[in-house]
Design goal:
It holds the Pfam family DUF4395. This protein is mainly alpha-helical and 161 residues long. The protein contains seven helices and two strands, in the order βαααβαααα.
């Protein structure tokens, strides 16, 4: 049986950054071609990762089993919950972009995906995860219970009080 919500407690930072790079490529292709299929694939990928982690995500599989080993990037373990939150933000942006393109709002579609490209580029190139950054504040403000991110605390992600 497939269990929804089976996201890993920890993830490989290099795989996450590689997935972000693939998201940049697919997003740029969708912006240029204005393809509903590519926008749908982007939305599917984020949805699969937020619901199941890498299990049903072609980009995650490619990153974990192909690109990261091929480039010898190794493994750097980081907390999973902030990365999952970042994927949820990706679901929102890619879903919004898909809907905008479906309804013919091409400029708005391109703007929304352009923002996604910016933040995915920051993750891929610089290792700055904006969703993870926001996640830390949500914990600090009490919007996300601290127990949700016990792994974060163990991996020194905890927000200082």
């Amino acid at each position: 049986m497939i269990r929804i919500g089976n996201f890993p407690d920890t993830v490989n930072e290099y795989a996450a950054r590689t997935v972000a790079g693939l998201v940049v490529i697919l997003s740029l292709a969708a912006i240029i071609t204005q393809s509903l299929w590519l926008a749908g694939a982007l939305f599917y990928g984020f949805s699969a990762r937020v619901l199941y982690g890498p299990k049903f995500s072609p980009f995650a599989k490619l990153a974990i089993h192909g690109i990261v080993p091929l480039l010898g990037l190794g493994s750097k373990t980081v907390a999973g919950p902030p990365k999952r939150f970042a994927q949820l933000v990706g679901v929102i942006f890619s879903g919004t972009a898909f809907a905008l393109l479906y309804f013919g709002q091409v400029s708005a579609f391109q703007a929304v995906l352009g923002i996604l490209v910016l933040f995915a580029s920051l993750e891929s190139i610089l290792g700055f995860c904006a969703g993870c950054f926001v996640f830390g504040f949500l914990i600090q403000w009490g919007w996300i219970p601290e127990e949700v991110c016990e792994k974060c605390n163990n991996l020194q992600f905890a927000v200082k009080k």
